[in-house]
Structures are given as structure tokens and as C-alpha cells.
Amino acid sequence: MKQELLAKMNAYLANQEIMYIKLHNMHWNLKGNGFFTLHAKLEEYYDQTADIIDEVAERILAMGELPVANLKEALEITKVKELPDGAINIAEAVRILTIDVEYWIHDSKEIVELADKEGDVVTADIFTGYVKEYEKTLWMLKAFAQN
Ligand SMILES: [Fe+2]
User: Fold this and answer.
1) If you write DSSP's letter for every residue of 41-105 in order, what string do you get?
2) Res. 147: pLDDT tops 80
3) CATH fold group of domain 2-145
């Protein structure tokens, strides 16, 4: 039902809101060989995440619900595991990111399925686009890890 879809979209939004900070954490605290490459890539990811947060929140509003717009509530419902402050090496950052991206794909696909059940082609289309982008990101992370 529509409420289940909206609740799932808000959970997704909360996850991406926390990811926005987590991607900055890695961007700032990265150490080692490959720094320049992954530092720049993480900036691309958090910029992309900012666009996704805005698009999802506005879609939720267009569907007649309030988006999660405070971090306290986001932290209560997120499934994202944040990192402590401090140095993180490239291999560890890529390993953690890969797990996160696999989760974003899983999360997006669940919403596509729920949206399809509701006949909500717009939401299904938005999240199908995310799956496409994330699967490309996952391939690239796996390629980068094999150096
Ligand atoms: Fe920066």
C-alpha cells in the first residue's frame, strides 16, 4: 500500500542523508596511495547524493507526505553504519563503500517493486535510474579494488 511505499522512501531518504556525511568523512580522512583519485571520486559521490536527497524529498512531498528533514529522526531510522572520525586507508574505504553501494542497490530495488505494485510509474522510474547509476558505481569500485 501507498503508506508502506512512503515509509520505505523516507527510510531511503534518511539513509542517504547520513551517507552524505559519511562520504564527507571518507573524503576528509582518507590516507595513502590513491588519495587523489578516491578523494575526488568521493566528492562526486556526495554531490550526487545531495541531488538524490533533494529529488527523493520532493517526490515524497509530491506524493502528499512529509520527508524526513531533521538528522535526529534520520539517525533513528537509518540502517547506515557511520564511521568514527579518523584516518581511513584506501582499501578499507573502498571495502566499506562497496558494502554501502550494494545496500543502496538493494534499497532502491525494494522501492521499485513497491512502486510497481502501486502503479506509481514515476517513483519506479526515479529509483530504477538510481539502480542503474549505483550498479555502474559498484562495477567501478570493484575494478578500483583490484589494483
Ligand atoms: Fe572537499
Assistant:
1) HHHHHHHHHHHHHHHHHHHHHHTT-PPP-SHHHHHHH--PPPPPSS-EEHHHHHHHHHHHHHHHH
2) no
3) Ferritin (1.20.1260)
